[in-house]
Design brief:
Layout: E1 2-4, E2 16-22, H1 35-38, E3 58-62, E4 68-73, E5 79-82, E6 86-90, E7 96-102, H2 105-110, E8 117-123, E9 127-132, E10 143-145, E11 149-157, E12 161-164, E13 170-184, H3 191-196, E14 214-229, E15 232-237, E16 242-246, E17 250-255, E18 265-268, H4 291-321, E19 326-330, E20 333-338, E21 346-348, E22 378-383, E23 386-391
Antiparallel strand pairs: 1-2, 2-15, 3-4, 4-9, 5-8, 5-13, 6-9, 7-8, 10-21, 11-14, 12-14, 12-17, 13-14, 15-20, 16-19, 17-20, 18-19, 22-23
């Protein structure tokens, strides 16, 4: 449990414990915020069609940690999953239609390379799908993803919407009245929130970055599956309270319409001290004696080059996003956070040979020398000039 003191604006309130729970237990889904907490900001949804029991899709997390999801697909209802994440289909394959689609590829690429490749599945009979929390990447097979991923199902009933911030958060979505859009992250908070916080100027939200300027907006009615690194947890923040979270671990937050994000998040100012960088000496070059050594060492230095490009990318990203940083979530909200690493971790899928410097002498292989009788048979002759010792092959005189 996490304890949080009363927000600055309300001093007389008592301390309340935040309710934090795992969002991805098998058979459960993240519930929408209480309607009494969001009634003042709700958008009318009376025109949305109601889902019947026969046309409702169910999504259940599978495993511990839940690295997969079981999708029960009713007839004639389409479901979209990340391309390369479908593991199995239970049902008649003749009645299943699979189509590769792209969701706003240009817009999502401009707003931060958000995932846009999906697979749409429609069946004329009920089928069961098994979906992995992982999806195929464009990286070569010599680099493998070692990050643990988990999937959390969320049901939307039209009372609240969701803002998803990670580029690959949206993994599964389905619903006849589900609205999904790619929107720009607001740079400044709203004037109303600035007045509520007692600020004369509109401060930053803390989420905007020129490298990741957009987020995925999900509204309406339907079911979605959200993927995060490590386990995914939900935090319920009541009205009049705020919750500070590292923005690199923030998956999503419940909102009320596309204009409500600037009323819910504000940057948390903090002082950081720069740590001087330590310059490491370059490694020694390995000797290449065979073609196999050349191929393996070429992979080694290709990995070093890829790591340098990755370090340069994250250096530019740190400069543009001003990380590390925390943001304050203003209630009433439901927050999704990931407990794993903020970024995916890739490792090489091959072993490197032991590197030897050019100055190290190469030990030659010693071949065994066959032994002959003359090596251990000797004759001793005593004469006027002294003793003479000679090797002989045999003591038998020829």
């Amino acid at each position: 449990m996490i304890e949080s003191k009363v927000p600055v604006a309300v001093v007389s309130r008592a301390i309340r414990r935040f309710h934090i729970s795992q969002a991805l237990r098998p058979g459960e889904a993240v519930a929408s915020p209480d309607s009494s907490e969001t009634q003042s900001n709700m958008v009318s949804v009376f025109q949305l069609p109601k889902l019947t029991a026969d046309s409702k899709l169910t999504l259940e997390a599978v495993g511990e940690p839940p690295s997969a999801a079981s999708v029960s697909l009713p007839p004639s209802l389409a479901v979209n999953i990340r391309r390369g994440s479908l593991l199995a289909v239970q049902g008649k394959s003749d009645n299943v239609s699979i189509t590769q689609t792209r969701f706003e590829p240009l817009k999502r690429m401009l707003y931060g390379n958000l995932a846009s490749r999906f697979t749409q599945i429609v069946s004329t009979e009920p089928v069961q799908l098994l979906v992995s929390a992982r999806a195929d990447t464009i990286l070569p097979r010599i680099f493998t993803n070692k990050t643990i991923k988990a999937i959390a199902p969320i049901e939307l009933d039209g009372k609240s919407d969701w803002a998803l911030f990670r580029r690959d958060s949206l993994h599964v979505y389905s619903g006849p009245s589900l609205l999904i859009d790619t929107l720009k992250i607001p740079q400044k908070i709203s004037r109303q929130l600035a007045r509520d916080l007692g600020s004369k100027v509109r401060t930053e939200t803390g989420l905007f970055s020129w490298l990741r300027a957009g987020y995925t907006f999900v509204g309406g009615r339907g079911v979605i599956g959200v993927v995060g690194n490590g386990l995914v947890y939900t935090v319920n923040v009541n009205a009049g309270e705020d919750f500070a979270v590292n923005k690199s671990c923030l998956l999503g937050v419940s909102i009320n319409g596309p204009k409500d994000l600037q009323n819910s998040i504000v940057k948390l100012e903090q002082k950081t001290q720069a740590i001087p960088a330590v310059i490491m000496p370059p490694p020694k070059v390995a000797q290449i004696r065979t073609w196999t050594d050349f191929v393996i060492n070429a992979k080694h230095y290709a990995w070093i080059a890829a790591k340098g490009i990755k370090d340069a990318y994250f250096f530019v990203r740190r400069q543009t996003r001003e990380t590390p940083g925390f943001v304050r979530i203003i209630g009433p909200r439901t927050v999704l956070i990931q407990a794993g690493e903020p970024h995916d971790r890739f490792e090489r899928s091959f072993e490197l040979p032991s590197l030897e410097s050019f100055g190290t002498p190469i030990a030659s292989e010693e071949k065994p020398i066959p032994r002959i009788p003359a090596d251990y048979l000797n004759t001793v002759t005593v004469g006027p000039k002294g003793v003479t010792i000679e090797s002989t092959d045999s003591f038998v005189k020829k």
